[in-house]
Amino acid sequence: MDMSELTNFATNYAAAWSGQDPAAFASFYAENGSLRINDGERSVGREAVEQTARGFMTAFPDMVVRLVEVRQEGGQITFYWHWTGTNTGPDGTGNAVDLRGYEQWILDSSGLIQESLGHLDDVEYQRQLNSGNEQHDS
User: What is the pTM assigned to this prediction?
Assistant: First the structure.
């Protein structure tokens, strides 16, 4: 893919994360593609990727993922994102998250994601998810 095609792919991928349609999101992955977030369990295959996306989309029904930047270096593509949403799904905390992170992609020969390694600051995610409106003064 040239940079224009890659930017278009990344823009559409971000929109799919935001779209509340986990099957549409999973369609960006090869049939045996995988998604792993931080040190979590790897979701392998479109169905598993779809289930992972469904979990986020259910927990954060107003989730928006925006493309910040996409870079290609050798065979590695890095998709930098900005994620916002409110945890109002079942058993949600009602708290908002506002995070930045990135995914490192390897694409297959047809231009689908073979492997995505997602990275976010889990400590900050947990803090935002569980802090509510509490303010701690030191």
Answer: 0.90
Question: Per the domain annotation, does 136 fall within a domain?
Answer: no
C-alpha to C-alpha distance for 45 and 30, rounded to whole angstroms: 7
133 — pLDDT class (breaks 50, 70, 90): very low
Could you read off the pLDDT of 60-101 as tens digits, one per residue?
999 999 999 999 987 789 999 999 999 999 999 999 999 999
End-to-end CA distance of the chain: 51
Burial class (CB in 10 A: 0-12, 13-18, 19+), 79: buried
Residue 110 lies in a domain: yes
Domain assignment of residue 32, yes or no: yes
48 — phi, psi (to 5°)? -70, -40
| Number of folded domains that form the chain | 1
CATH of the domain at 45: 3.10.450.50
DSSP-derived pairing of the beta strands 76-86 and 96-107: antiparallel
- Which domain, by its residues, includes 39? 3-131
Q: How far apart are CA 85 and CA 131, in angstroms?
A: 15
